[in-house]
Amino acid sequence: MLSTKNLKAIPDADKLKKLCNALLILDIIVAPSEWLRQFYYYNKWAEGVKVFHYKDGMGNHVHIFFSEEGVVIKGFDHECAMAEFGPDLSPEQIAILENPNTSVEQRREIIRSAPRKPPWAGVLDSLPDGFHDFLSHKNLVKTGTSFCIWKMHDDMDWQIGEIDFPEGEDVDGSEYLLRFFNDKLETYRKHEIEHNDMTFVNGRDFDAQIIQQILDGKLINNEMVSTLNPLLTDLKELSETLTLFGHPFEWN
């Protein structure tokens, strides 16, 4: 399993990027309604930075940053042992919040203006300087971090900080949140069944061959899309995404 305890299982940067692209393409096909999706892509996050985002719908998420300097994988599992997150309140602020006479507006302002609790010691302390700007982006200021993995272009292996991990299983949530980031068909099949509560989508067959072709970056055509989701007839968004990623496709 991919995790901070098994860094060698994480694909190299190029393979990881292609896999992220494939997961997003599959999500667009099987979940045309954006609110049903779990995979997102930001092409203009910052100059020279592209971001892939996975969220499980339960407050947990992964951001993967691809840049000229390298790759950063930042994740947050709010139920794990290392989920240090939330407003860092002073005793005086806590007392005000616990006072039943404090107004809703006062409570909101205290929580809004309070600094965030820092991540678990060591998670971000060794992150290379060039990567810190990614995590200070306005869209990430109020998101937690329970694990962080990175690889600069001149690194041979994926890196994490010097962390005194607590005892227990998957204490930073990385095993749970990184389970999709391999090219194993069975992983994706389980995801679709669990997330959509379907045999595949609305009872349609899970076509393993087509899914594997997309995960492998092979050409996509109309018949493949129709097999996976016959309800998807407007291919504009899919075409734009395939073009953006350089993924081969051919419509009749």
Describe the structure.
With 252 residues, the protein is α+β, with helices and mostly antiparallel strands. It has two domains: 7-84 and 119-247, no CATH class; 85-118, no CATH class. It is built from nine helices and seven strands. The protein has helices at residues 13-30, 91-98, 104-113, 129-135, 174-177, 185-196, 208-215, 222-228, 236-245, and strands at residues 39-46, 49-55, 61-66, 70-76, 147-152, 220-221, 249-250. It has a five-stranded antiparallel sheet, with helices on both faces. It has a two-stranded parallel sheet with strand order 6-7. A hairpin with a 5-residue loop joins strand 2 (49-55) and strand 3.
Overall shape: globular
How much strand content do the residues show? Answer: 15-25%
Q: Structural class of the helices, strands and pairings?
A: alpha+beta
Total number of strands: 7
Mean pLDDT value: 84
Largest sheet: 5 strands, antiparallel
Report the order of strands and helices.
HEEEEHHHEHHHEHHE
Radius of gyration: 20 Å
N-to-C CA distance: 40 Å
The low-confidence parts are 197-203
Lateral arrangement of strands in the main beta sheet: 1-2-3-4-5
Task: Indicate the percent of residues in helices.
Answer: 25-40%
Number of domains: 2
Secondary structure tally, helices? 9
